């Protein structure tokens, strides 16, 4: 069974109220039981996140001081280059003290690892944001 990798660094993109926010990094430092700890960084400042991971449904819910994020994990394997793409995507709501408190948005975070073992076969292509955030992690997109 494939689970959310940790420790791991993810590229993240979020939009709130239909406006793109920024690209950044999403770090999962630990998953202990169903508790998640890490940080999120949109403007060169690490902000702590804490929340929950539900293994059976592949759902994550984390809070920072400024937003609450909920989403699902999907996996897209590329056997031709032996890469496994992990994709977290979902909704967010901004919280006080953010200037955008009360506004809803979407987020997408990706990371990848080498593919070991048999690939998971899927006919669905990952969302285009998966490639953008992957480029962020590998130095292709500036913040």
Fold and architecture overview:
This protein has 143 residues and is mainly beta. The chain has 1 helix and 8 strands. It has one helix spanning 128-137, and strands at residues 8-16, 19-32, 35-41, 47-54, 59-63, 67-78, 83-94, 104-114. It has an 8-stranded antiparallel β-barrel with strand order 1-2-3-4-5-6-7-8.
SSE order and pairing:
Blueprint: E1 8-16, E2 19-32, E3 35-41, E4 47-54, E5 59-63, E6 67-78, E7 83-94, E8 104-114, H1 128-137
Considering DSSP H and I runs of 4 or more, what fraction of the residues is helical? under 10%
Distance between the termini: 34 Å
- Largest β sheet strand count, sense and barrel closure: 8 strands, antiparallel, barrel
Q: For the CA atoms, what is the radius of gyration? A: 15 Å
- The neighbouring-strand order within the major sheet is 1-2-3-4-5-6-7-8
Pattern of helices and strands: EEEEEEEEH
What is the oligomer described by this structure?
Answer: single chain
Number of helices: 1
Q: So what's the overall shape?
A: globular
Mean pLDDT: 86
Uncertain stretches = none
Tally of DSSP β-strands = 8
Structural class call reads mainly beta
How much of the sequence is in beta strands? over 45%
